[in-house]
Specification:
CATH class of the largest domain: Alpha Beta
Strand content: 15-25%
Largest sheet: 6 strands, mixed
Radius of gyration: 21 Å
Number of domains: 2
CATH superfamily of the largest domain: Zn-dependent exopeptidases
Order of helices and strands: EEHEEEHEHEEHEHEHH
CATH topology of the largest domain: Aminopeptidase
Distance between the termini: 13 Å
Strand order of the largest sheet: 6-3-7-10-8-9
CATH architecture of the largest domain: 3-Layer(aba) Sandwich
Shape: globular
Length: 261
Amino acid sequence: MCFKKAVAKSSGFSRIFAFGLMIFSGAGLINLCTVCAEATDELQGPPVAQSHIIGIDPGHQGPNVDMSDLEPLGPGSTEMKAKASTGTQGTFSCLPEYQLNLDVSLKLQQILENRGYQTVLTRTDNDTAISNKERAEYVAGQGAEVYVRIHANGAESSSAAGALTISPSSSNPYVSQLYDDSNSLSQCILDAYCDATGFENRGVTYADNMTGINWSTIPVTIVEMGFMTNESDDLKMSNPDFQNTMASGIADGIDAYFAEK
């Protein structure tokens, strides 16, 4: 179970010097040391975000980059999958998933950095040729502590709606050692995201056939933010203002995950 704790944003002030000075006001003596100390606590807040590095993967890629070549499903695997794809598209908004994922990821990056985190993005445009395997290796190589992969869902039925997260299973043949932390990360983000957006919580699911999961060496989750084949989900997710809410919810989940550590 994920217990949420409030985290104040970093103020950018590392220190406030307090002097042992007493002043008299109409209310009586005021100790400036106490005033400065209280101000310091309020400005700095709990240092939960400090020193944490978050890997963010805006899922999929634009159509101008051919990523149809194959790569191994996981370390030592003989099963091969395409390096990347363009993803789905909004049935009602016509917004491509690769663009939605990038839009939310960039907003998430800004929110996290405002809270004091460092971030690593696998791509910042739709024309960078980087495979799912390479993305997982890149964020870990940059020192990321967790890997958050941003995606959106699709279904044959337009009634399917809501958000879910995907974690490696406890029996994953490649990264079973990441199960506990990945499951916790997945649950924290999903709960906070659904609280923020009001989307149906479809729970954490487990998959061992995802290249980007199987090549990860750090706790990893896929955030399926909503169904682009559902009118309500699709139109909300395509709204830039609502995307801020989505990104804030994901950031809240990351806060909660590290608050438990």
